[in-house]
């Protein structure tokens, strides 16, 4: 699996923030982590010049380089970085590097230390997507993008595996299916319109694009997705949210659980029902109390016959 299939740990809608930058004279730093591709409208000028959907610094007339610090919304192990110079054709930086660090609590940008290089200084081209694989198993909370000497970058993507602070979660009721707690979609029948990992994202979906939606089925089957949960635990409440899906919500849904620890590595999972096939309504937040005490490590959602879901929440407790 290519690393770009993993969640973007820096995404603004996942809680990421560009907390500091050396300069943002032409275009604001916050654009680096916006969702979606950068847009551009030529001959659109403001007080700072041509308007760019990205981060752009002034032309440096002194030694040094520009930089931007990003606090990851989802701390974890970084598997790859994407530096996108879309629309920056005569004003892109010729080189860039990326550093990362891990910090506890809520430090200010100036209090961060222990930076390590995860992407060495590398050449960039204009109006181009650059992918850099990262091979470092450590958990990071912040990254710093360095550009040499100056210029514009449209988007910074930091793909990886979420690693939450497990000590903070112990003993609490948590969402075992939350991306921010380490859950991840491991299988899916269809993702024609949008990524299934959207259903695990933080917050509420603002529109259909921020949920999961499949193509229309014509074969008599049904769509499904499987989720590796944040850890072994018991589920007390299932929430199936079809908000924004008014004419394309599933008609019914069912939920199953499995404990992969009992099947062994790579063995078949023994699925058992958590929620029987149940009718759903469009544009509705459905909540169901579950009464099965068996621990689960994975969950499977079946929707009938097709459609979409805004969010899937599985509230429960992690095993000690």
Automatic annotation (TrEMBL):
Task: Please list the GO terms describing molecular function.
Answer: allantoicase activity
Q: Describe which pathway this protein belongs to, using the record's wording.
A: Nitrogen metabolism; (S)-allantoin degradation; (S)-ureidoglycolate from allantoate (aminidohydrolase route): step 1/1
Q: Which InterPro entries does this one have?
A: Allantoicase, Allantoicase_dom, Galactose-bd-like_sf
What family does the Swiss-Prot or TrEMBL record give for this protein? Answer: Belongs to the allantoicase family.
Q: Under what name is this protein listed?
A: Probable allantoicase
Question: What is the main EC category here?
Answer: hydrolase
Q: So what does this thing catalyse?
A: allantoate + H2O = (S)-ureidoglycolate + urea
Q: Which organism is it from?
A: Microbispora oryzae
* Ranges of residues in domain Allantoicase: 15-162, 182-317
Membrane-spanning residues: none
Q: Which GO terms describe its biological process?
A: allantoin catabolic process; purine nucleobase metabolic process
Keywords on record: Hydrolase, Purine metabolism
Any idea of its EC number? 3.5.3.4
């Amino acid at each position: 699996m290519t690393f770009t299939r993993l969640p973007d740990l820096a995404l603004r809608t996942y809680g990421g923030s560009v907390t500091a930058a050396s300069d943002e004279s032409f275009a604001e730093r916050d654009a680096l982590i916006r969702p979606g591709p950068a847009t551009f409208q030529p001959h659109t000028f403001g007080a700072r010049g041509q308007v760019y959907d990205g981060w752009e610094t002034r032309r440096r007339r002194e030694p040094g380089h520009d930089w931007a610090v990003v606090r990851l919304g989802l701390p974890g192990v970084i598997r790859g970085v994407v530096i996108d110079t879309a629309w920056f054709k005569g004003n892109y930086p010729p080189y860039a590097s990326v550093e990362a660090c891990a910090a506890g609590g809520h430090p200010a940008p100036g209090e961060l230390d222990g930076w390590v290089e995860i992407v060495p200084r590398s050449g960039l081209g204009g109006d181009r997507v650059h992918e850099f694989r990262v091979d470092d198993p450590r958990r990071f909370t912040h990254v710093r993008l360095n550009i040499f000497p100056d210029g514009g970058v449209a988007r910074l993507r930091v793909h990886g595996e979420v690693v939450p602070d497990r000590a903070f979660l112990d003993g609490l009721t948590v969402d075992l299916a939350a991306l921010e707690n380490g859950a991840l979609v491991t299988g899916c029948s269809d993702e024609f319109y949008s990524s299934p990992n959207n259903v695990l994202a933080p917050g509420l979906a603002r529109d259909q694009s921020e949920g999961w939606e499949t193509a229309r089925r014509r074969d008599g089957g049904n769509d499904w997705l499987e989720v590796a949960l944040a850890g072994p635990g018991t589920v007390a409440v299932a929430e199936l949210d079809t908000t924004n899906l008014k004419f394309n919500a599933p008609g019914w849904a069912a939920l199953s659980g499995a404990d992969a620890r009992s099947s062994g590595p790579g063995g078949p999972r023994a699925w058992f029902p958590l929620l029987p096939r149940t009718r759903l309504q469009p544009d509705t937040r459905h909540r169901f109390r579950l009464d099965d005490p068996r621990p689960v490590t994975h969950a499977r959602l079946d929707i009938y016959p097709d459609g979409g879901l805004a969010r899937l929440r599985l509230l429960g407790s992690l095993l000690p």
